[in-house]
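Side project, low priority. Logging it here so it doesn't get lost.
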Amino acid sequence: MVGGRESGFRINHVNESRRAFDEMHAGGGVRPAYAGIEAWLKAHGLEALAAKRAEAEALFRRVGITFAVYGEGGDPERLIPFDVIPRILARQEWDRLARGLTQRVKALNMFMADVYSKREILRAGLIPPSLVLQNEAFRPEMQGFTPPGGVYTHISGIDLVRTGPDDFYVLEDNCRTPSGVSYMLENREAMLRLFPQLCAGHRLMPVGHYPEELLETLKEAAPPNCQGEPCVAILTPGHYNSAYYEHCFLADEMGVEVVEGFDLFVEDAVVYMRTTAGPKRVDVLYRRLDDDYIDPLVFRPDSMLGVPGIFAAYRAGNITLANAPGAGIADDKAIYPFVPDMIRFYLDEAPLLQNVPTYLCERESDRAYVLEHLHELVVKLARGSGGYGMLIGPHSTAEQREEFARRIKARPADYIAQPTLALSTVPTLAGSGIAPRHVDLRPYILTGKDVRIVPGGLTRVALREGSLVVNSSQGGGTKDTWVLDDGPAPTQSQSQKMGG
């Protein structure tokens, strides 16, 4: 229990969180990684923390850190709520996660190289061919073509949840255009500015070098016909995209151009961007554009966002698209249950990170089980995102379950189901004080000649009491994620430098 008379508050444990693993407390005491946070919370009252939260909000608003929400009555310009109490991981916890993440992303890249060529895993009978070849995320246009270095997903975001001291599960793989890394970086900057002494009192592993690592990864992905130093740019759908701030932020941090489709053109299977000094050849595009819109000559003919002829330039070895078109086949929720099999098949290793048990509703036996146990399962769209189209059985009404049963029976291949996990909780500044709230973690994995991972990632927090939905579009917030290195705490100046 944190607080007492010194601070005038205590952590309120809500009923929904009692069976969840409390990352700050264990065995009636405070876990060692959180010892410094406990002392800090005792020394600061709620009013002081609330004032710092307001200061962080003003900072984010001034800098322009917003995301857009369209549809369902959303606010097109919204701040993601930032919680000022950091989430802590010990170095040994992180090292174990990093090994598992590296293993998983290697296998996912090998899977994509395989299904777009020899399809050995399908012939081995480990994955039903129909799940791959009839999947809308599978791109026949990529068959017979291998991107430079055999890398399909250069930037991956793997969503993890925790249920116990040593129990981490992969909830979802994001191999197309994973977002949120700018919030990871800005959250650290905010903590360094708002709480310099707290940061200086902990040996924080750095995250601020992520843009440098990203740029190096993209340069390593240069196509075979690159001439000299690779020219890298970020391709954005434009300012109406929900992650447009992030596109501009990363371009600025890397010192590269952010371009839209109309800024580019293709001539003799070479991609150029228009500049005030004339056309400039582009070698690598970090594209934040969905597959369908990349090239109207190959994919959607009505796309006004892409670049006519860019796919031909890609296959000709004159440009690299990161991530590769067709990478979505690796993060489809219907493919997710087979990732442990991929690891064993391609790497001949036991998976280091566990999957959540998953039911595929297109299977008759799985569907029967799901329909009978809707009240205890989480049902998701196989190709959904952002927390939309989801049923959380224990928190649902009879009418909602009946509606989902109709949907599943009508289109069973569109749905998967998983047991409801007791997501771990961390202390969070809530309306009633400091209370436990459920969290997940999205580390970002970069794959070039080697695999690079900055320590930590984006912690997303379900701010509503008892909620398990952490998505920002559904009312979730974010926290800074601290991985504590071994050894004594650095000086304040060293800590600020480490935070980037």
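Brief comment: Residues 91-115 form the longest helix (25 residues).
Revisit when time allows.
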